[in-house]
Design a protein that fits this description.
By secondary structure, this protein is mostly helical. The protein is built from seven helices and five strands. It has a three-stranded antiparallel β-sheet, with no helix packed on it.
C-alpha cells in the first residue's frame, strides 16, 4: 500500500497563492505587534515641569518674571518718549517755518518804507514761543529717555544675573530629566523585549518542532514578524555603537545556524532528502552511496561517459542475479522482495512489483 503521508508538490498557482497569503499574514502579524508595542511605548514618562519645580526656587522665577515685566514697561515708556520727540520735532519745524515767513514779510514791509504791524509782531512772538516751548519739551523728553535707558540697563543687568542663577538650576533639572528619560526608555525597551522575545522563541520552537507540517507557513509568518519587531525595538532603543555589535552577532548567529543546518543535511540528510537522492541515483543508473555506475542488465557492457552510458551490441542473454551489490562500496542495491520474490531496489521504500513496503 502506498504511503499517502509523503508530501506531494501542489500546482504552482496554489503554491504561489500560499506564498502570497503567507507574506500577507506576516504583514498583519507585524501590524498587530506594532499596535501592542506602541501601547507599551505610551506609558507615561518623566515630567520635566515637576523636576524643574524641585530644582528651581519659585522666588527666583517670580523675580525673573517681575524683572521681565519691568523691562517691558520701560521699553514702552522709552518708545512713548521717542514718539513725543517726533511730534515735538514736527512742531519745531512748523514754528521755524512760520518764523521764517513772518521775518520775510517784515523785511519786505521795512524795505517798502513801512513798519511791521502789531499783528505781525504778535504772530512772530507766538511762533517764537511755540518753538522755544517745543525745544524745552524735546530736551525734557531727552532727559526722560536718558533716565529710562539707565533704568533699562540696570534691569537688564539684574535679568542677566538672575538668568545665570536660573541656568544653573535648569541645567541640574535638565540633567536629572535626561537621566530619568533614559531610564524610562530602557524600561520601555525592556518591557517590549520581554513581550516580543518569548513570542520569537515560541515561533522558532514551532518552526523547528513542526517541521514538515502543512501549517508551517503560519509558524514562519510568526517567526519573521517577531524577529522583525525585535530588530526594530533594538534599533529604536539601543545605542548605535552597541547596536552594531548586536547586529554582527545576530548575523553570525543566523549564518552559523544555516551553516550547521547545511552541514547536518549533508552528513545526515533527512529521510525525504535521502529518498530523493536514491530515486535520482537509480534513475541515472548510479549507486546512491558512491555514484559508481550500476553494471547490471543492459548496462553491464556499457561504456560510461560524462553524458551517460553508451550501449554497444545486444544485451547479455544470461539471466541476471536476483541480488546486486555495488562493486565500489559494497552497498546492496537490488534484491528479491520478501513478499512476491521479484527483484526490486533495496534502497527504495516499496517493491516495484507488488508495492510492499520494505
Amino acid at each position: 500500500m502506498a504511503d499517502t503521508s509523503q508530501k506531494r508538490n501542489a500546482p504552482w498557482p496554489l503554491r504561489l497563492a500560499i506564498g502570497f497569503l503567507s507574506l500577507l499574514l506576516t504583514l498583519f502579524f507585524i501590524w498587530l505587534l506594532s499596535f501592542l508595542l506602541n501601547d507599551i511605548g505610551d506609558l507615561p514618562g518623566p515630567d520635566y515641569n515637576a523636576i524643574q519645580k524641585r530644582h528651581v526656587p519659585e522666588e527666583k522665577l517670580n523675580e525673573a518674571n517681575d524683572l521681565a515685566t519691568q523691562l517691558v514697561g520701560v521699553e514702552k515708556r522709552i518708545k512713548r518718549q521717542e514718539e513725543i520727540q517726533g511730534t515735538l520735532q514736527q512742531s519745531m519745524r512748523n514754528a521755524e517755518t512760520a518764523l521764517t515767513k513772518i521775518a520775510d514779510l517784515q523785511r519786505l514791509s521795512i524795505e517798502g518804507g513801512g513798519k511791521p504791524s502789531e499783528v505781525d509782531r504778535q504772530a512772530m512772538e507766538n511762533a517764537r514761543s511755540r518753538f522755544y516751548t517745543a525745544q524745552d519739551e524735546y530736551e525734557s523728553a531727552n532727559e526722560t529717555i536718558t533716565t529710562l535707558n539707565d533704568e533699562r540697563h540696570q534691569i537688564k543687568q539684574s535679568i542677566a544675573s538672575i538668568d545665570a542663577e536660573l541656568r544653573q538650576f535648569k541645567n541640574k533639572s535638565q540633567a536629572e530629566y535626561n537621566d530619568a528619560r533614559r531610564s524610562h526608555e530602557l524600561k520601555i525597551a525592556s518591557l517590549k523585549l520581554v513581550f516580543v522575545v518569548p513570542l520569537l522563541l515560541l515561533a522558532a520552537w514551532l518552526v523547528k518542532k513542526k517541521r514538515g507540517s502543512i501549517y508551517q507557513p503560519f509558524n514562519w509568518a510568526a517567526l519573521v514578524a517577531t524577529f522583525w519587531m525585535v530588530w526594530l525595538v533594538m534599533w529604536d532603543y539601543f545605542p548605535r555603537d552597541f547596536f552594531k555589535y548586536v547586529a554582527i552577532l545576530a548575523a553570525i548567529g543566523i549564518l552559523g545556524a544555516f551553516l550547521t543546518w547545511a552541514i547536518r543535511s549533508s552528513a545526515r540528510p533527512r529521510k525525504a532528502t535521502l529518498l530523493k537522492r536514491h530515486r535520482e541515483a537509480y534513475q541515472n543508473h548510479r549507486c546512491p552511496a558512491c555514484d559508481f555506475p550500476i553494471l547490471r542488465g543492459a548496462f553491464q557492457q556499457a561504456v560510461w561517459t560524462k553524458r551517460g552510458p553508451k550501449l554497444h551490441g545486444e544485451a547479455p542473454s544470461q539471466t541476471e542475479s536476483s541480488r546486486y551489490t555495488c562493486p565500489s562500496c559494497g552497498e546492496a542495491l537490488f534484491d528479491q522482495c520478501g513478499d512476491c520474490g521479484e527483484v526490486t531496489q533495496t534502497l527504495l521504500p516499496y517493491c516495484s512489483a507488488c508495492g510492499r513496503e520494505s
